[in-house]
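job 3f2a | input accepted
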Amino acid sequence: AATIHAALDHPLIADSATGGLDWYLRWTFGPQLESTRFCRMERLREDLAGHLEELLGPLPEPFGSTLASLPEQNVQRSTDVLAFYDDALIERIRRLDAPVIERFGYPTHPG
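job 3f2a | predicted structure (111 res):
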């Protein structure tokens, strides 16, 4: 947790009044952020299929069914990610990265 607190205390992030991920996305994508399409790794197949259909229309077969039927891989976490966060850091991220949490539909409470 101390390392993540220190990163969020870096002047580039601390002075921006946003969280680390929100700052990084705004720095990376600038004005294009709002029109940028993202896929969450947790639901990559669904997000990718949705974006492709939005851009190209219905997915041709067998592409659509093949994409939907691909087996999940590497789905086990080897580390409890909450071990990296203390309560103060969870609250700080929840507050400062609220736009990112909302945009990607992440839960507001860990666990």
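job 3f2a | The CA atoms of residues 5 and 89 lie 7 Å apart.
job 3f2a | closed
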